[in-house]
Design brief:
Two copies of one chain form a homodimer. In chain A, about 30% of the residues lie in helices and about 25% in strands. Chain A has eleven helices and 17 strands. The first copy, chain A, has a five-stranded mixed β-barrel. In chain A, strands 12-14-16-17 form a four-stranded mixed beta sheet.
Chain lengths: ~350, ~350
């Protein structure tokens, strides 16, 4: 059977002041009229029955996520006492699912990405699930790039491994770190590189094998509590395991080391919605390329992203700004500096404004 | 005796969204911890007893001004049913004062200007009042310019007319319209031009004479209701008079025509606080030249004016912006476009957002 694992551990600092410690990106309606996690669940529900969808999230957000996705069984929202990157999260999910169904296939997806063409996504999900169910391949989705982005890791295609109808699946030649601009240009034009979007499909038995081989420390830690998973003892067991579990990404822990990795190119209108600036590509824009949520009036303003649901926002003579208004904090930021919202939060901590984080 | 006439008819549209139709600039604490009208009254009180200070304002603001300046007699806040520029306002005040004291000297001052050096201002006020009391001169204060400002009218100095101690008073050669930049530069460097700040001192009998001679229409209209001024019939009388009274400035009506005009140069830290941008010169600034009212945190922001008393405002990578937050409207504006706030209000009217005006 196919299981879904939604990785909802993000703290969402990049959407401050709308996102807060208590309200990370996956719980914001930032890209549409649903929260990002709601959209993520809705996207996979046609393929995966809700009793086989698990959400792994931070302990601080578990209750709100349960309320947001009430159709999930309470035991299907698993909380991590602290963020330890993707490898522990995936290992935890894999061992937990394996207890119920050792032959299960699992797809692991971030809770806070956007996908424009959902039918196509589900078609490719079905293909990947079929391959995974009949093999021990570790399959990752590789996103067909449409620009020379320096903010993502890339996957270099190896030779075609197999073909399902018209859809080719490739061996992975290499996982590549975030490139500089000229390398990114080269990658884009070569046609041999895809973005690493952090979406994976495999049999739980295959990923458990890989953990045992390539990341034995995480494997041991989770295996040691496997008998407690999905029992009343789970919470305490996870808390104990996470006290010392290695914080490591699934890419470092497994994907870059394993030899049985395949990549399925997907071109589905993916957007990781990584900052306020990214919403300029997501939201509708007026004739001056202003992307606005809220009442708005401008004289000679262009290319701005405005989120101000509670009042009229007016702009005069400004370009490429991000303006975000909330009841207790206002942000005005050059669009190309939107990543520095993180730095701002460090500064907030320093001056003791923790209540706004 | 010396009477003060405070002209408080301004609608203060240039400080939107903080200023509103119901809350013009003179009623805002925009340049300090007092409203501008409070500061104006406090400035002249050492020279003019409060029972001889009259405020002329729009009917919509009279009650709030009475509450703001409670020491004035209720009859000393005179309301105009509509703005008709400065000449009717001054004629009304002059005829009203003349009823009580035909030999009175009156000083007419805008309610919403800032004066940094108040002692010096009062010293010059005393000099002007003394000259006025002994002559029929119409005296205007001319502000010594410190920059080539294109936003003000200028007064060209004529020959010295008289001297009081070290203080020279000059004949006026000409009132000059707002110049272009190169003319403004010439004016500044010549030393022969002063800014026209709209502050006047004269005997009420002298200005009434001048009205009769140079602006008989306004004179006739006010004279016709003179018997009703400062009586229970005043309000109705003014309402009727203002139905058809000519809307004209005192400069056009009198000053540019009269031959008995003197100008007293004053250098008193004057600022007309004409727009949000002007507050950059008035407020304290941080080491990046940001002038801020409210909690504030910035990364690489410089030269901004921020008014946001209700929440934390954060800026990243922006320069020379005006940011004004209010509970129902937010303005983000390039500082050199601050005058266009007026245009914004026209646009607001057009789209039916009158409630925010």
């Amino acid at each position: 059977m196919l299981y879904g694992v939604i990785m909802a551990g993000g703290s969402g600092t990049r959407f401050w002041p709308q996102s807060r410690i208590t309200k990370p990106k996956q719980l914001l309606k930032i890209a549409g009229d649903r929260t990002m996690i709601r959209a993520t669940i809705d996207r996979v529900m046609p393929e995966i029955s809700c009793e086989r969808i698990m959400i792994v999230t931070g302990v601080a957000h578990a209750d709100e996520i349960r309320a947001e996705i009430p159709e999930l069984g309470e035991n299907m929202v698993v909380s991590e006492p602290r963020g330890r990157n993707t490898a522990p999260c995936i290992a935890l999910a894999a061992y937990r699912i394996a207890k119920e169904d050792p032959d299960a296939v699992m797809v692991a997806l971030p809770a806070d990405h956007l996908i424009g063409r959902e039918d196509e996504f589900r078609r490719l999900l079905r293909i990947a699930a079929e391959i995974a169910s009949k093999s021990d391949y570790l399959i990752t989705f590789g996103i067909v790039p449409d620009r020379a982005e320096t903010g993502y890791g890339y996957i270099e295609l190896g030779p075609e491994a197999l073909k399902m109808g018209d859809t080719s699946v490739f061996k992975v030649k290499a996982f590549v770190e975030k490139p500089d601009k000229s390398r990114a240009e080269t990658y884009l034009h070569s046609g041999n590189y895809l973005w690493n979007g952090g979406m994976f499909i495999w049999k739980v038995s295959a990923i458990i094998q890989a953990f045992e081989k390539y990341c034995p420390s995480v494997s041991r830690t989770i295996k040691a509590i496997a008998q407690d998973l999905n029992t009343p003892r789970e919470r305490d067991a996870i808390r104990k395991a996470y006290e010392c579990i290695e914080s490591i990404s699934i890419d470092y822990a497994i994907m870059e080391k394993a030899s049985n990795v395949l990549v399925l190119p997907i071109d589905v209108g993916w957007n990781d919605v990584g900052s306020w600036a990214s919403l300029h590509d997501v939201w509708d824009k007026d004739h001056n390329r202003n992307a606005v949520k809220g009442a708005f009036l401008a004289l000679d303003a262009a290319g701005c992203v405005v989120s101000s649901p509670h009042k009229l926002t007016t702009l005069i003579g400004v370009e490429d700004l991000v303006v975000v208004d909330t009841p207790d904090a206002l942000l005005v930021c050059r669009k190309d500096r939107a990543q520095d919202v993180k730095e701002l939060q460090e500064a907030l901590k320093e001056i003791g404004y923790d209540k706004l984080l």
